[in-house]
Design brief:
Blueprint (H helix, E strand, L loop, with lengths): L7 E6 L1 H18 L6 E7 L3 H8 L6 E11 L6 E9 L9 E9 L3 H11 L5 E9 L12 E5 L5 E2 L15 E4 L8
Parallel strand pairs: 2-3, 2-5, 5-6, 6-7
Antiparallel strand pairs: 1-9, 3-4, 8-9
Helix pairs in contact: 1-2
The protein binds guanosine-5'-monophosphate.
The site of guanosine-5'-monophosphate has 17 residues, from strand 3, strand 5, helix 3 and strand 8.
């Protein structure tokens, strides 16, 4: 038996549905950026990694990638602390470039609002946001999300880059965790 099975309340988005939507997002991005040069995809670690690598395979506009690590959660906690910290910054200059943030999930919006302000202060030519998942009912900060994979209910989810207490990011689907379950308990 797979060790993650006891934690799953339900599979919210299966692999086929996920991949089809990512392909469609790629097509939309190709159309929107066809006349723009110097596209930089900024992946937010760690949750955005699987999404980035699948999405970029469907983006045919020339582009570079870079990574940032930002946290607003305490270790193991499932509620945003509201305090955002940069754990890893970009290694390149973004001035005058077309930036697309690739994020796993927008929950309260605190993390992305902070990241957006930070990057806009560096004078890019444009800045858009692509999030695989969004929990609109949890939003505390109104931020524009240009590309959304799926809107989901207020449930803690894991798989496909998202962790359950740092585990199970490798699963090819998105699952909702059974309330009260912790991977290390
Ligand atoms: P926000 O600042 O929007 O409240 O939180 C964004 C970050 O919280 C995400 O990038 C992600 O790391 C984490 N997060 C929010 N909701 C979930 C969830 O349902 N599952 C997991 N694994 N992480 C989440």
């Amino acid at each position: 038996m797979h060790s993650y099975l006891p934690f799953i309340e339900e599979i919210l988005i299966d692999e086929e549905t996920l991949q089809a939507r990512i392909e469609a997002l790629g097509a939309q991005i190709n159309a929107d950026y066809s006349h723009m040069s110097d596209l930089l995809l900024i992946c937010v670690l760690k949750g955005g990694v699987l999404f980035l690598t699948d999405l970029m395979r469907h983006i045919h506009v020339p582009h570079a990638i870079d990574f940032m690590a930002i946290s607003s959660y305490g270790p193991g906690a499932r509620e945003s602390s509201g305090i955002v910290r940069i754990d890893l910054d970009l290694r390149q200059n973004v001035e005058g470039r077309n930036l697309l943030i690739v994020e796993d999930i927008v929950d309260t919006g605190t993390t992305l609002a902070y990241l957006r302000r930070l990057l806009l202060a560096r004078n890019p030519a444009s800045l858009r946001i692509c999030a695989l998942l969004s929990k609109p009912s949890r939003r505390l900060t109104d931020i524009p999300i240009d590309y959304v994979g799926f809107e989901i209910p207020d449930k803690f989810v894991f798989g496909y880059g998202l962790d359950l207490d740092e585990l199970y990011r490798n699963l090819p689907f998105i699952a909702a965790v059974k309330p009260g379950m912790y991977a290390h308990s």
